[in-house]
Amino acid sequence: GENVEQHPSTLSVQEGDSAVIKCTYSDSASNYFPWYKQELGKGPQLIIDIRSNVGEKKDQRIAVTLNKTAKHFSLHITETQPEDSAVYFCAASIEPAGTASKLTFGTGTRLQVTL
Amino acid sequence: EAQVTQNPRYLITVTGKKLTVTCSQNMNHEYMSWYRQDPGLGLRQIYYSMNVEVTDKGDVPEGYKVSRKEKRNFPLILESPSPNQTSLYFCASSPRGGESKNEQFFGPGTRLTVL
Predict the structure, then answer these.
(1) Using CB atoms, which residue from B92, B97, B104 is nearest to A98?
(2) Beta A10-14 vs A109-114: how paired, if at all?
(3) CA-CA distance, B52 to B31, in Å (whole number)?
(4) Which of A74, B44, B52, B68 yields a CA-CA distance of 20 to 30 A from A55?
């Protein structure tokens, strides 16, 4: 089955700096890669996703890149703010047409943005 | 408000005492899933359901049961809880089908302690 590794497990940056979280996956058939943000005391929430037919996707201060050959994908957060402090999970799945996908999650990265 | 609800949010119980954690969604989603979250292990899928009366094992199903008698409800049953089932549990739901419909919506979590 799919195995997703995520690094680093903790990341501390100063406000305004950039943060990068990296994930690798094992199953070359995986084609859907979402990122979830989990704030303290809450369930994870989707913040951005990418499919294997594109190499990069941006949404304001966050971006995700995908390298299918190397089987790794990354989350980039620019101009970090205190509200970006949370645990971030990457995930991978094979997204068959017409059905929901079974996600395999990474182990999470705790991001702390300091003032 | 579109949401996934879980009850109870916190539960302390003793080994062997059967318990049920309820999950309900009001978004008419076909796909529902249970995860457990443990430090350093990320989110691991316990069971999932593609639709009413259709359930299947995830990655860590041992010691758990589920049922899907109605579309909106997906209870998680621990027939004989053990201390290694102490964890944070999340229910999630997702619509089925199409590239834009694979976001999983998570409930707020249930923190279970088995003594």
Answers:
(1) B97
(2) parallel
(3) 9
(4) B44
Q: Which residue has the tokens 């003032």?
A: A115
Q: How many CB atoms lie within 10 A of CB A22?
A: 17
A33-54: b (≥16 Cβ within 10 Å) or e: bbbbbbeeeebbebbbbbebee
| Burial annotation A1-15 (CB, 10 A radius, 16+ → b, else e) | ebebebeeeebebee
Structure tokens at A40: 């303290």
Q: From first to last of the 115 residues of chain B, give the pLDDT tens digit.
A: 889 999 999 999 999 999 999 999 999 998 999 999 999 999 999 999 988 999 999 999 999 999 999 999 999 999 999 999 999 999 999 887 555 557 889 999 999 999 9
Q: Which of B42, B96, B109 sits opposite A43 (nearest CB)?
A: B109
How far is residue A56 CA from its own chain's centroid? 12
Q: For residue range A64-85, list pLDDT tens digits in order.
A: 999 999 999 999 999 999 999 9
A3 touches chain B (CB under 8 A): no
Q: What are the φ/ψ torsions at residue A83 (nearest 5 degrees)? A: -70, -5
Q: Is there a contact between B90 and A44 if contact means CB atoms under 8 Å apart?
A: yes
